[in-house]
TrEMBL record:
Transmembrane segments: none
SUPFAM superfamilies per UniProt: Actin-like ATPase domain (SSF53067)
InterPro entries, per the entry: ATPase_NBD (IPR043129), GppA/Ppx_hydrolase (IPR050273), Ppx_GppA_N (IPR003695)
Source organism per UniProt: Dethiosulfovibrio marinus
Protein's name in the database: Ppx/GppA family phosphatase
C-alpha cells in the first residue's frame, strides 16, 4: 500500500508572497503540485531608501501569510514551512517581522542567504534542463537576482546580487507615466552592477534559463492573446525584450496594466524587470532565453520530501 504525504511552503519575497502545496506518493516516487499561487504584498517597499521594513508592508505580508496558512489547513496540510529572501536579509529590523510572524502564526521563518536562494532556485529548474547542458540560470525578483553557472547540469557557482525590480523601479522612477528617459540610465546602472558583481567571471555555455514573476509576465505578454502555461516551452528573444521595453516606457502606468498578458499588480515594476533581463543578455552576450515557471519554492519544497 502506498502512502501520500502533503507539505506546503510559503516564500516571502521582496515583492510577492508565494504559496506552493505538493504531495508525494511513495509508490510513484515524485511530487505532484496541488496549489501554486502568489500575492503581491511588497514587503520591500521603501527598503532601498530606509534600510527598514515599513509597518504597512509588514502588515500586508503577515495578513497574506495567514491566508495561505488557512488555505493549507483547508486542504488538510499542517506541515507548512516558510522561507524569506533579500528583503529580510537586508532590513535592519527584519527580526521584528520574524518574531511577529512566529507569534501570530507559529511559523519559524528561515531567512535564506543569497547563495542558498540561488542554489534552491536552481534545484527547482534543474530537472527541466537538457541532458549535459552548460550555461547560466537566473531568477530575478523584487530585491535581488540570483545566478547559477552550471556545467553538465551541475552547479559551478551560485551567487546573488542586490539588483531587483522594486529597487530599480524606485531608483529610476520607472513606474511613472512615459518614463522612457529613465530606461537608458537604468540599463547602464544594472549592467555595471552585474559586471561588478562578477556575472561574466565564468562564461559558461550559451544556454540561458530565467525565472521569476517578471519573467513569467514578459512571457505572457509575448504570447498574448494565447495564455501562458507552465506546460509550454516558451523562449524570449532579444528583439522581443526590446519591443517590450519600448512599449512599457512609452505608455502610462494605467495603459501598461491594460497590455494583453500583463499581470495588473506587476505593471508598476515590469519595466525594471525587463531592463534587468535585457542587461543580463548584454553581459552574457546571448540572444535568447528559456523561460521557466519553476524556481525557489519548487526546489526548496522538493528537499523537504527527501
Amino acid at each position: 500500500m502506498s502512502s501520500v504525504c502533503r507539505k506546503a511552503l510559503i516564500e516571502i519575497g521582496t515583492n510577492s508572497v508565494k504559496f506552493l502545496l505538493a504531495e508525494k506518493d511513495d509508490r510513484l516516487g515524485k511530487q505532484i503540485y496541488i496549489e501554486d499561487s502568489n500575492e503581491i504584498t511588497r514587503i520591500g517597499e521603501g527598503l532601498a531608501e530606509s534600510g527598514r521594513l515599513g509597518e504597512p508592508p509588514m502588515d500586508r505580508t503577515l495578513d497574506c501569510v495567514r491566508r495561505f496558512i488557512a488555505k493549507a489547513d483547508a486542504l488538510g496540510v499542517r506541515d507548512v514551512s516558510a522561507v524569506a529572501t533579500m528583503a529580510l536579509r537586508r532590513a535592519s529590523n527584519s527580526r521584528i517581522f520574524v518574531d511577529r510572524l512566529k507569534a501570530k502564526t507559529g511559523l519559524s521563518l528561515r531567512v535564506l542567504s543569497g547563495e542558498e536562494e540561488a542554489i534552491y532556485s536552481f534545484y527547482g529548474i534543474a530537472p527541466l534542463l537538457p541532458v549535459g547542458s552548460d550555461g547560466w540560470y537566473f531568477d530575478t525578483g523584487g530585491g535581488s537576482t540570483e545566478f547559477v553557472c552550471f556545467e553538465d547540469g551541475r552547479v559551478v557557482r551560485a551567487f546573488s546580487l542586490e539588483v531587483g525590480a522594486v529597487s530599480v523601479t524606485e531608483k529610476f522612477m520607472l513606474s511613472q507615466d512615459s518614463c522612457g528617459n529613465g530606461v537608458e540610465a537604468a540599463l547602464r546602472w544594472i549592467e555595471g552592477s552585474l559586471e561588478e558583481g562578477g556575472l561574466p567571471s565564468e562564461k559558461g555555455g550559451s544556454f540561458l534559463v530565467g525565472s521569476g514573476g517578471n519573467v513569467i509576465t514578459m512571457a505572457a505578454v509575448s504570447l498574448a492573446p494565447e495564455r501562458f502555461s507552465s506546460s509550454k516551452t516558451v523562449r524570449l528573444s532579444l528583439s522581443e525584450l526590446d519591443r517590450q521595453i519600448d512599449l512599457y516606457g512609452s505608455v502610462s502606468l494605467q495603459e501598461r496594466r491594460l497590455i494583453p498578458g500583463m499581470d495588473f499588480d506587476r505593471a508598476p515594476i515590469i519595466l525594471a524587470g525587463a531592463c534587468i533581463v535585457r542587461s543580463i543578455f548584454n553581459v552574457l552576450e546571448v540572444k535568447e532565453m528559456l523561460v521557466s515557471s519553476f524556481g525557489l519554492r519548487h526546489g526548496f519544497l522538493n528537499t523537504l520530501f527527501d
